[in-house]
Amino acid sequence: MKVLVHLACLLPIAWLVYAGFENNLGPDPTHTVTFFTGRSTLRLLAITLAISPVRKLIPKLGWLIRFRRLVGLYAFFYACLHLLTYVWLYAGFSLAAMEQDISQRRFIVAGLAAWLLMVPLALTSTNWSIRKLGGKNWNRLHKLTYAAAIAGLVHYWWGVKPGVTTPMFLTLLIGGLLLARPVVKAIREGKNGDRKPPVAVGAEKM
């Protein structure tokens, strides 16, 4: 199963390489590569956000949690490719050009913020990090995934021309997943409350 997850996550980059060799990246290959890697990042982030509520609602799919970190690492991989296409193909590795863009283009700032939020998530994706930080602290830190997804969506919307609605699907998907979190929690708490055994009358509190 893990091999299949790897293959699925590598499909976007495989398509990109194939399209490049076939000269099928459109009239503006740089824009195509940048757009495609950015959208792939958000798609994989959406999958990582979906795994938790799905496994809680459908216990039989609990095994999905084993692949959440892996999918998250692939999201960071595509985020790095997205950043690299900007730094290399747009800015030409020029610090002056990047500084100018950061000061004048707000979507660059939002994108950089999203990437920076993902860095600690990628660095602490190991079992050693979980043991070192402790489960609760690790979970708190990895809630940055939500902030990274939101920053990524802001970057996406600010980066397209007015009237373009391409980001709408991912916005609705990720927005729905963010809203699903408290809903799923309430449903689970309700079920657990129904399953609590009756307390014997006159039982002493421990």
From TrEMBL:
Binds 1 FMN per subunit. Binds 1 heme b (iron(II)-protoporphyrin IX) group per subunit. Residues 38-152 form the Ferric oxidoreductase domain. The chain crosses the membrane at residues 35-58, 70-91, 107-129, 141-158, 164-184. InterPro entries: Fe3_Rdtase_TM_dom, MsrQ-like. Pfam families: Ferric_reduct. It is found in: Cell inner membrane; Membrane. Keywords: Cell inner membrane, Cell membrane, Electron transport, Flavoprotein, FMN, Heme, Iron, Membrane, Metal-binding, Transmembrane, Transmembrane helix, Transport. GO terms for cellular component: plasma membrane. Its main location: membrane. One of its GO terms (molecular function) is FMN binding. Its cofactor is FMN; heme b. It is a multi-pass membrane protein. GO terms for biological process: protein repair. Heterodimer of a catalytic subunit (MsrP) and a heme-binding subunit (MsrQ). Part of the MsrPQ system that repairs oxidized cell envelope proteins containing methionine sulfoxide residues (Met-O), using respiratory chain electrons. Thus protects these proteins from oxidative-stress damage caused by reactive species of oxygen and chlorine. MsrPQ is essential for the maintenance of envelope integrity under bleach stress, rescuing a wide series of structurally unrelated cell envelope proteins from methionine oxidation. MsrQ provides electrons for reduction to the reductase catalytic subunit MsrP, using the quinone pool of the respiratory chain. Belongs to the MsrQ family. PANTHER family: PROTEIN-METHIONINE-SULFOXIDE REDUCTASE HEME-BINDING SUBUNIT MSRQ. This is Protein-methionine-sulfoxide reductase heme-binding subunit MsrQ. The lineage of its organism: Bacteria, Pseudomonadati, Acidobacteriota, Terriglobia, Terriglobales.
